[in-house]
Design goal:
By secondary structure, this protein is an alpha+beta fold. The protein has one domain: 2-Layer Sandwich (HIT family, subunit A). Helices cover about 30% and strands about 20% of the residues. A five-stranded antiparallel β-sheet has the order 1-2-3-5-4, with helices on one face. The longest helix has 22 residues. The protein is globular.
């Protein structure tokens, strides 16, 4: 795609700090560096996001994520890792080329903050929603 920044990085038109590359996937340091070692793993083929990918393409991408994540953790001395994928603007996607964020974690006080709010479960509603999803 002509106006996609990640496609331009893959084509070598824009420089990047590569940490991994093969014929299907490229991984490079995110310029934002939310935490030191923050890496993006992208398929070389353009897809808007994971929701647009087929099974083979997504399996090629995710087959590489654990090894790249381990290398980032080893190189940075991180204590943990958030692996994040945002799909569409409402979910925080800002570049519309599939990418997986590898965000090394060093402490609970680093610059990445994720919060999940727990609610009392409504089990009948969960059963109903699960059935609806299964049938879609």
């Amino acid at each position: 795609m002509a106006d996609c920044i990640f496609c331009k990085i893959i084509a070598g038109e824009i420089p990047s700090s590569k940490v991994y590359e093969d014929d299907k996937v490229l991984a490079f340091l995110d310029i934002s560096q939310v935490t030191p070692g923050h890496t993006l793993v992208v398929p070389k083929e353009h897809f808007r996001n994971l929701l647009e990918m087929d099974a083979d393409s997504s399996s090629q991408l995710f087959a590489r994520v654990p090894d790249i994540a381990r290398k980032v953790m080893k190189a940075t001395g991180a204590l943990g890792m958030n692996i994040i994928n945002n799909n569409e603007e409402v979910a925080g996607q800002t570049v519309f080329h599939t990418h997986v964020h590898l965000a090394p974690r060093y402490s609970g006080d680093d610059d990445l903050q994720l919060t999940f709010t727990a609610h009392e479960p409504d089990f009948p509603a969960l059963v109903q929603l699960a059935e609806k999803i299964a049938q879609a």
